[in-house]
Write a structure and sequence with these properties.
Blueprint (H helix, E strand, L loop, with lengths): L1 E5 L13 H15 L3 E6 L8 E4 L5 H4 L5 H14 L5 E4 L16 E4 L6 H8 L5 E4 L2 H5 L6 E4 L19 E6 L6 H11 L3 E6 L5 H8 L8 E3 L5 H10 L2 E4 L9 H8 L4 E4 L4 H4 L6 E4 L2 H8 L7 H11 L2 H18 L4
Parallel strand pairs: 1-2, 1-4, 2-3, 4-5, 5-6, 6-7, 8-9, 8-11, 9-10, 11-12, 12-13
Length: 343
């Protein structure tokens, strides 16, 4: 198949540090190329891929510091419209940016939704039932009745790249983009309640610098609570595999949570709030614990030795492996093309 992959332009493909969506796009693209498909990736010029790359801007937008970065998305669609006849199918990851342009695109469109289903997004997507939307969790799909979801496909990761560690070190771990709703303040509270060491890794964006400076930084003492900055892939895996538990006290309707399966792939149990897709990823009492607040999370930390780390690893290999994800996308492409669904 001749497949166009449309990536957001904020971060390179694959990401240098933070970027779950961009990491999944990279994994999907590379595996499709390995399977013999002719894949074209629309992304920033600092992206790296074995597919044909269409660079829309020389640098990813977070690194380019442009005065009007959203204008670059219009350049993306201008280029896509120009060469759309080269593709059998378009796989979009830009969601609400792409939706209005879908009326002018001839190949069928698959759009994976990586964001929580906010009301304004649902209203928009309902206006474009011509798009074949893919949910990344059952929870995400339930939150958007009326949207043309054609499939639910969980993210998958190359489990061989996540080294299993049966004997962790004595610390808790938190990793994400540092922003309200991701649960960092709550993770620190749990560490203080339990007396456990907490290592924090994450990206601080300009718009959340004040949140870090005034809400989080005063709680970091460099001993019990340690901030190690952003982590590349190798550093991230090292921190995951050596942690006794990964804390995920998220308060928003997270549609998936790639860090959850990355943690379990290394054998590290996840203790998370019962929000969003977390109950679909973590098997309560088997690969971690599902809790309702920081008090319950602190109690769960004291029980984490009861979890067999090999069970965490096995769950990811069985349910969230990269090949499983790509098989489902490949089958979906074929079904849509066979049924002749044109936008």
């Amino acid at each position: 198949m001749k497949i166009a992959q449309i990536a957001p332009l904020w971060i390179p493909i694959p990401p240098i540090t933070y970027g779950g969506t961009e990491f999944v796009i990279s994994l999907l693209t590379e595996e499709l190329v390995k399977r013999g498909h002719k894949v074209t990736l629309f992304a920033s010029g600092d992206s790296k891929t074995s597919a044909r790359l269409i660079p829309i801007w020389s640098k990813s937008l977070w690194r380019a510091h442009l005065a009007a970065p959203h204008a670059v998305f219009s350049l993306l669609y201008e280029r896509l419209l120009e060469i759309q006849d080269e593709f059998d199918i378009i796989h979009d990851h830009c969601e609400f940016y792409t939706a209005p342009f879908s009326k002018f695109l001839k190949p069928p469109i698959v759009s994976t939704i990586h964001h929580p289903m906010y009301e304004e997004i649902i209203i928009l997507f309902k206006k474009f039932p011509n798009i074949n939307y893919v949910a990344i969790s059952k929870n995400q799909r339930r939150n958007a009745p009326g949207v043309n979801f054609v499939k639910t496909i969980y993210h998958g990761i190359p489990t061989k790249m996540y080294e299993f560690n049966p004997k962790p070190e004595n610390y808790l771990f938190w990793l994400s983009k540092i922003m309200p709703g991701k649960g960092l303040a709550e993770a620190i509270e749990v560490a203080k309640l339990t007396g456990e060491k907490l290592i924090i890794s994450g990206v601080i964006q300009k718009e959340t610098q004040d949140y870090f400076d005034f809400r989080i930084k005063p709680l970091i003492d460099g001993k019990q609570i340690q901030f190690v900055g952003a982590s590349n892939f190798e550093k991230k895996v090292e921190l995951f595999r050596n942690a006794k538990a990964f804390l995920y006290p998220i308060s928003r309707q997270e549609p998936f949570g790639l860090v959850v399966i990355e943690s379990m792939a290394c054998g590290t149990p996840v203790i998370g709030f019962r929000e969003g897709a977390v109950p679909e990823l973590v098997k309560d009492g088997k690969t971690g614990f599902l809790v309702k607040d920081t008090i319950e999370m602190a109690k769960a930390v004291n029980k984490v030795k009861k979890i067999k780390r090999i069970d965490c690893r096995r769950r990811v290999v069985r349910k969230f492996d990269l090949k499983k994800m790509v098989n489902k996308y490949e089958a979906l492409y074929n079904t849509i093309l066979k049924n002749g669904k044109k936008t």
